[in-house]
Amino acid sequence: SMDQTFYGSDFGQLSSQDPEIAAVLLSELERVRGGLQLIASENLTSPAVLAAMGSTLSNKYAEGYPGRRYYGGCSEVDKAESIGIERAKALFGAEHANLQPHSGANANMAVYGAFLQPGDTFLAMSLPHGGHLTHGSKVSFSGKWFNAVHYGVDKETENIDYAQVAELARTHRPKLIVAGGSAIPRLIDFEFFRNLADEVGAIFWVDAAHFIGLVAGKAIPSPVPYADVVTFTTHKVLRGPRGGMLVCKQEHAAKLDKAVFPMMQGGPLMHVIAAKAVNLLECSQPAYEAYAKQVIANAQQLATSLGEKGIRPITGGTDTHLSLHDLQGIGVTGKDAEARADAAGIVLNKNAIPFDPQPPNTASGIRVGTPAVTTQGMGTAEMVVIADLIDRAVTRTDGDPDHPVAKEIRAEVSDLVGRFPAYPRLSS
């Protein structure tokens, strides 16, 4: 099948050697092709990125950094990492870059390792208000080992409560202040945070995991000039392989490099680093800038259209790739909405909203994002259609795939994604 292109040249070998796992690879491709992928933190990488990940670079141990390795035989992987570092610095206008973090959480771990001692205080956004697990949640190392102080959003605007941020910073004098999170639809005032960090003598860190792709595509302002360190994942809007990365000011370079390796990680994943380099080249093209702008236009249309159905957008809309919606007005929980959408071929996630009366596992909201559907070529006209499909799934079905309305919606989803296929077959 032409689909083997997406798994590197040896898919034939995999299917004869291990039909069980080969079947999962194919069925996952069918799942992605068959539904609407609206998870805000997901995207569809290029075949070139997948090819780099499925390469012989996977075999190489390369503890250390280019030119300073603890193993011999690193001449070729050094090239891949050095190319990637230069591309990252150029793309983000950064003084230093580290491509080794295995994930966003690992990149974040390195920041704590570089700047804090166990028990130190840091200030971050609370998870229920849109922050991230690694920003001091009690179940995370960040909340177990450090003293996390949390800010939230203003009840009226539903946006970051900057007055509260300032008050907490002045009261607690944190060593580190972090901006960013996983459910923040609006732009963040980086200049405000920079000035506040300077005032209280804190390091200013931006966790840009969610929106860094929009920064790379010059569609929103960059945190890089303001922050001491910016961490991010490479697999969201950025559209690279699953992984993490950080860029920072030169004065912190040695400290952060040591915190990534040897403090938090051992050998880097050289095949993923090569794939990150491939992705960074893709992000420097004009086509990617057009993509990033379209992601936002689509997210804004989707948020507006859902709002018109009574599925209210938190903060009244979005400036980014995602929107958070309050379902209380239509009397459905986030958990039920996610299940009903899923049964109708629409993949999104339940999400806590600020001041949510429900527990996190039930939640009163859903989060939707446009990176993947935009990669597939959809535009604002399709977002109007998708909002209608979501509304009908959430209000007129019950989570049973055999529900007549769910079947009806699945047929319409199928027609839509058929016109904008994920990983279009090279020949039919």
Describe this structure in words.
With 428 residues, this protein is an alpha/beta fold. It contains 16 helices and 15 strands. The strands form four sheets. Strands 4-10-9-8-7-5-6 form a seven-stranded mixed sheet, sandwiched between helices. Strands 11-12-15-14 form a four-stranded antiparallel sheet, with helices on one face. A two-stranded parallel ribbon has the order 1-13. Helix 1 packs across helix 2, helix 7 runs parallel beside helix 8 and helix 12 runs parallel beside helix 15. The longest helix is centred in the C-terminal third of the chain and has 23 residues. The radius of gyration is 22 Å and the shape is globular.
| Percentage of residues in helical conformation | 40-55%
Distance between the termini: 10 Å
Strands across the major sheet, in which order?
4-10-9-8-7-5-6
| Strand element count | 15
**Major β-sheet annotation:** 7 strands, mixed
Count of DSSP-assigned helices: 16
Class based on secondary structure composition and strand pairing = alpha/beta
- β-sheet strand percentage: 5-15%
> Uncertain regions: pLDDT < 50 for 5+ in a row?
1-8
